[in-house]
Design brief:
- The protein is of the alpha+beta class.
- Helices cover 24% and strands 13% of the residues.
- It contains 9 helices and 6 strands; from the N terminus they run E-H-E-E-H-E-E-E-H-H-H-H-H-H-H.
- It has helices at residues 22-30, 73-76, 148-161, 174-177, 187-192, 195-208, 218-224, 241-245, 253-258, and strands at residues 11-14, 41-49, 53-60, 87-89, 118-128, 132-134.
- The protein has a 6-stranded antiparallel beta sheet, covered by helices on one side.
- The chain is elongated.
């Protein structure tokens, strides 16, 4: 069979981990980047990368079907309950939120499991094309393809909210998504990413976390600038004298020890103690 030239938006197949070669197994499975159960599922080609690699996200039914009335994974699986905001649904499947548009394929195509097709945008992987195969479930053996607007919406959502997103993937405008993407860069996440992706992720987080000192308006700058500041405007007003005086005074142990203790004079004459002292009684032992 001739090699397939994959395009962005194609529905491919992430092969089962047991079919990986030794190199791919060490890179993806042994390193913990991809869980074994995440393999053997259809996947969406999000971006083609140089070096015969691609950024993909998996599509799964998460075990739902007719036996449980196509129950959503965040309701059927306890471990998926916390990931409900990260689930995107294809047309015909239960949506996790009304603010997300259903994912759609091009006209005339549909997923083989239209009622149980979900994408968790946290499961995004940078994989070699050697672990990507053709998805043979569709009728007439055609390659399914996402609608362009639906693919762009999914790419933008992943760039904004996926914790393992790397700016090197360039799924969307990184500058517009850096402020909205969650600030997550744990040690486990960085160790799971390739070296170049980890460096790019750290650089983006450091740029987003940089703090710029606020500058006051010109009226306030003229008000607070004076001879003490040598005519230079300052960015923050000085602390008022009343507030500075209200601060508690710091005392040292030497000053406390040198301060004499004032003895309060007792009022009235001393009274005799009326408390009785109980003495133990000796009991004679009888034979």
């Amino acid at each position: 069979m001739a090699a397939i030239t994959w395009l962005e938006g194609d529905i491919a197949f992430l092969k089962d981990y047991q079919t990986f070669n030794d190199r791919d197994t060490r890179e993806l499975i042994s390193s913990g980047i991809i869980h074994e159960r995440a393999t053997g599922h259809p996947c969406i080609i999000l971006k083609m990368l140089p070096g015969a690699r691609a950024v993909v996200t998996t599509v799964s039914a998460h075990g739902s079907g007719d036996y449980n009335n196509n129950l959503a994974p965040w309701l059927a699986i306890r471990s998926c309950a916390m990931d409900r905001p990260f689930f995107r649904s294809f047309q015909g499947s239960v949506c996790s939120s009304n603010r997300f548009k259903p994912l759609q394929l091009i006209p005339g195509q549909s997923m083989p499991k239209p009622k149980t097709s979900w994408v968790n945008i946290k499961n995004v992987y940078n994989v070699p094309l050697s672990v990507i195969g053709r998805f043979t479930k569709p009728r007439y053996r055609v390659i399914l393809k996402m609608a362009p607007d639906s693919l762009a919406d999914l790419q933008m959502d992943i760039a904004k909210r996926c914790p393992c997103y790397s700016p090197r993937w360039q799924l969307a405008d990184t500058q517009s998504c850096s402020d909205k993407r969650p600030m997550i860069a744990t040690r486990e996440l960085l160790s799971a990413l390739p070296e170049a992706d980890a460096v790019a992720l750290i650089t983006t987080k450091m740029r987003a976390a940089s703090i710029v000192a606020p500058v006051l308006p010109q009226k306030q700058q003229a008000q607070y600038s004076g001879q003490s500041g040598r005519g230079q405007p300052i960015t923050t007003p000085p602390v008022p004298v009343t507030q500075a005086a209200a601060r508690p005074k710091q005392l040292s142990w030497a000053s406390v020890a040198s301060t004499p203790v004032a003895i309060k004079p007792t009022s009235g004459a001393l009274r005799r103690s009326t408390s009785r002292i109980s003495r133990p009684r000796m009991v004679k032992a009888t034979a």
